[in-house]
Amino acid sequence: LQAYERRFPTCPLIPMFVDSDIINEHKNEDGSIHVIERRCKLDIDAPRLLKKIAGVDYVYFIQKNSLNRRERTLHIEARNETFSSRVIIKEHCSYTVHPDNEDWTCFEQSASLDIRSFFGFESTVEKIAMKQYTSSIKKGKEIIEYYLKQLEREGITSVPRWTPPDAHKPKCGTSQPRRPASLAINIPDSAAKEGSSSKEIPNTSSGPSETTAETPDDKLDADYIKRYLGDLTPIQESCLIRLRQWLQETHKGKIPKDEHILRFLRARDFNIDKAREILCQSLTWRKQHQVDYILDTWNPPQVLQDYYAGGWHHHDKDGRPLYVLRLGQMDTKGLVRALGEEALLRYVLSINEEGLRRCEENTKVFGRPISSWTCLVDLEGLNMRHLWRPGVKALLRIIEVVEANYPETLGRLLILRAPRVFPVLWTLVSPFIDDNTRKKFLIYAGNDYQGPGGLLDYIDKEIIPDFLGGECMCEVPEGGLVPKSLYRTAEELENEDIKLWTETIYQSASVFKGAPHEVLIQIVDASSVITWDFDVCKGDIVFNIFHSKRAPQPPKKDSLGAHSITSPGGNNVQLIDKVWQLGRDYSMVESPLICKEGESVQGSHVTRWPGFYILQWKFHNMPACATTNLPRVDDVLASLQVSSHKCKVMYYTEVIGSEDFRGSMTSLESSHSGFSQLSAATTSSSQSHSSSMISR
């Protein structure tokens, strides 16, 4: 104890321990119990920015030391006083005599950490706390031995053992009158560890697989960031954690990988609101067009394989996958006339999906984060033919789609042998290219790419393509003119375009105030299973399911001028006649389900009767506050989000026969979020005939 007490009021061996004051001290009558409570001032090794945001330079802990001379124990308890409403830190240490050898002192230490909220820096605070805790464990034995030796140098080599004031002889079992002060400290294996902590150091052994049930802080330790994400500031890391946590709360199950989320954050300079908006739009787009499966389900037409002069070719000096495009040798007009815009767009999307896959592979191969690729564009042969208006229009649309859904995937664009006509093309396309992307463009005219600062600065000499003067054979098709015999009429191309982008199991619909969207499902056999999967893309809606014994009138489109929509996504069908009465002409078989903007909803209903079932998506009117006439802030904000009283949903429905459904018919629940295809899973529950799961 004498050695331990020398750590106060401050300890030079613990630089962060600035000062301490005794705030309470107590001794019992016989002197066997001595309790000291101190307020300790600590200078935590934390980023200056974090301290500035938190508004503190030092943090304070309350430490309580309880010495029991009779039992020969010392218990030390510590808790944080600063930010105690946001972070709860508790630590307990004990010094005891070994039960089998009185010459041994046992030391045990444990701690718990509970971070409720900390300005969005929860992960950073946890890492700082774990770092300080680990450091204190390593130095604990070193510090106590330092002060023991200091006592020896001062001639204090033994301390009398405590005895009761009225006792003249030591009790049995404590016959040694004096005890050396410099006792060897034996720490058992179990005590040498970090103790039982309620927060474990994040495990980094797993790869960058898709996150499912992990908490937002599980993977973001220093090793994981360095290995898979690259350099992140504390604020950038906090933005990633917060956006990922929001996705986990709103879309349970499969969510995008950290690398994918990070691309959208970087594209919007880590503005969470802007990044969340474009990310949600992109995820909805991917789901609607099943882009996740494009590499497995779509085979490019032979015309593309023969005449599209582009392909993957090794990697650059930074390990990025290298894509080579011989644009000057490509007959863009012929490809558009033979295939149409949609086939070209889908092919470019497949190239981007392959690029993402190659980035993941190269990350594993090179042992560092590679999240983008390099594109080498050879413009030799570019002429006015490439400025054909429909071709430029197709190019601009492709750029628009790629910019919106694959941000920050282009690491560098090398444009070689730019001819005189290039500035004209650049003037047309540059306004559609993001400023951050334009900064990655390097343009070389003529043979400038062969000189200093040219191609050799970015690509190894051994893999420079042969058509650029290198020695590496490049398997990229040479392009050439597409035979006019392969051209198709505008009608054929239009039908093909519609076919390409309607190859989706999802449909879109608009919902207006006073004009719900309704889907009719006829059931012949009772106990069939109606399943649904929908995303609320805009506004808040109420989802209902009704049953009627008689068929409603043929569907009628909404004829209101203000609601008329010409796009395929503007479908609005109303089935329930206004003269029908609920309870007489039709009945409600499900409780209304309020669904907020951005939510994904999956569920199912086991039908009890044959007849006609109507799935309805209705505009959600904000309820008035019951206790006051003043509108709530949440209501006002929500009303602002639903412009012109219009909502949008993207939905899919399917009927499964009872004989085809595997599982318990008493409870059905979809286990996937809106980011994956509809699937059914079963769980056991009480006598329920339907269930819905909202991914909030």
TrEMBL record:
GO cellular component terms attached to this protein's record: cytosol; Golgi apparatus
Cited SUPFAM superfamilies: CRAL/TRIO domain, CRAL/TRIO N-terminal domain, Supernatant protein factor (SPF), C-terminal domain
Gene Ontology terms: biological process: innate immune response; negative regulation of RIG-I signaling pathway
Cellular location(s): Cytoplasm; Golgi apparatus
GO molecular function: RIG-I binding
Record domain CRAL-TRIO: where: 300-476
Biased composition (Polar residues): 198-214
PROSITE patterns assigned: CRAL_TRIO (PS50191), GOLD (PS50866), PRELI_MSF1 (PS50904)
The UniProt record lists the keyword Phosphoprotein: yes
The protein's role, per its UniProt record: May play a role in innate immunity by inhibiting the antiviral RIG-I signaling pathway. In this pathway, functions as a negative regulator of RIGI, the cytoplasmic sensor of viral nucleic acids. Prevents the interaction of RIGI with MAVS/IPS1, an important step in signal propagation. May also regulate the SLC18A3 and SLC5A7 cholinergic transporters.
Annotated keywords: Cytoplasm, Golgi apparatus, Immunity, Innate immunity, Phosphoprotein, Signal transduction inhibitor
Pfam families, per database record: CRAL_TRIO, CRAL_TRIO_N, PRELI
SMART domains: CRAL_TRIO_N (SM01100), SEC14 (SM00516)
Annotated protein name in UniProt: SEC14-like protein 1
PRELI/MSF1 domain ranges (all copies): 1-156
Classification via InterPro entries: CRAL-TRIO_dom (IPR001251), CRAL-TRIO_dom_sf (IPR036865), CRAL/TRIO_N_dom (IPR011074), CRAL/TRIO_N_dom_sf (IPR036273), GOLD_dom (IPR009038), GOLD_dom_sf (IPR036598), PRELI/MSF1_dom (IPR006797), SEC14/CRAL-TRIO_domain (IPR051064)
Superkingdom of source: Eukaryota
Presence of keyword Transport: no
Quaternary state and interactors: Interacts with RIGI (via tandem CARD domain); the interaction is direct. Interacts (via GOLD domain) with SLC18A3; the interaction is direct. Interacts with SLC5A7 (via GOLD domain); the interaction is direct.
Main location: cytoplasm
